[in-house]
Amino acid sequence: MTNKKYAFYILIFSICVFLTGCEKETPNSRWSMLKKVDPAPIALYTETAAGQEELLQGIKEETSMMPSIYDVAVIKGKKDTLVAYKVKQMARFKMKRIEKELTEKLKSKYPDEKFTVSSDFKIFLETIRLWDKTQQPDFSKEKAEKRLKEIIKLNNELT
Amino acid sequence: MADSKRKNKTPEQQQYEKFEQKYETKRPVLKNCIKAFFVGGFICMIGQLISYFYIYFFHFTEQTSSNPTTATVIFLSMLLTGFGIYDRLGQFAGAGSAVPVSGFGNSIISAAIEHRTEGFVLGVGGNIFKLAGSVILFGVFSAFVVALIKTIFIMMTGGF
């Protein structure tokens, strides 16, 4: 077999590897890295405090108001609130500044909440995957809370 | 500088220089730049796709996916060098294929192939980092210098 044929087979194999696994994806998360999803904010424990929906809607609106942010997902667990967002392409040079500004803004407006703010694609993707799972009736709150904590832990990993 | 050099040359040498310039083939600089731009950009696009692949299917964040992405791009360029494909790409694109990290893999494997006939230890082992060694050395040294400057800057200003 010639070298060209080898290269061709490797290319085909690589494409197959890239494409595998897509079938298990939930509808929102499949394209969430490429296009705007804009999911509604959700609280895993709605019974713990009144006015949760308003609070979460407020957090989402505050985040969306920033001009360089275009897609926001908010999930509130028992203690933590995860805010994942996507930054416009040309504003990606100022990601750290945006994250700092947003954290300060949210903390000043909602001092009782514990926020985890992230512009990372992976965190956004996992948030959407969790959001999709919470829509299924057989997915328990405990599992969702555990997954939320895992996502927050993943966000704090540096290497 | 150029004028002083010209003055030192004899009239014959100057005449020959003019004659040479007349018949010298001109390098298509703009064309080469455009080729390098597109091929280099294409390699970077493949790198971005690999990065997304690691983010999507594995537990890598945007920050942590850069390490396996770099390793994969280097590995692919090593394979392509072994198959003789990367050499042709290098001839076509020049700096476009040498400047991205894939050029690093190419420089290692091409040196290994070149010196294979001299044996595994003195040939391959002794020459495999002939080109890439300087890249690693300068990379490590410049990282050290930058880290030193940053540390001193933070110690002096307390950071911003």
TrEMBL record, chain B:
Q: Which domain of life is it from?
A: Bacteria
Which residue windows are transmembrane per the record? 36-57, 69-86, 133-156
The answer on whether this UniProt entry bears the keyword Transmembrane helix reads yes
InterPro entries according to UniProt: Spore_V_AC (IPR014203), SpoVA (IPR005562)
| Record's keyword terms, sorted | Membrane, Transmembrane, Transmembrane helix
Alphabetical list of PANTHER family matching this protein:
STAGE V SPORULATION PROTEIN AC (PTHR38450:SF1), STAGE V SPORULATION PROTEIN AC-RELATED (PTHR38450)
Q: What is this protein called?
A: Stage V sporulation protein AC
Which organism's genome codes for this protein?
Answer: Niallia alba
Q: What does the organism's lineage look like at the top?
A: Bacteria, Bacillati, Bacillota, Bacilli, Bacillales
Provide the gene name from the record: spoVAC
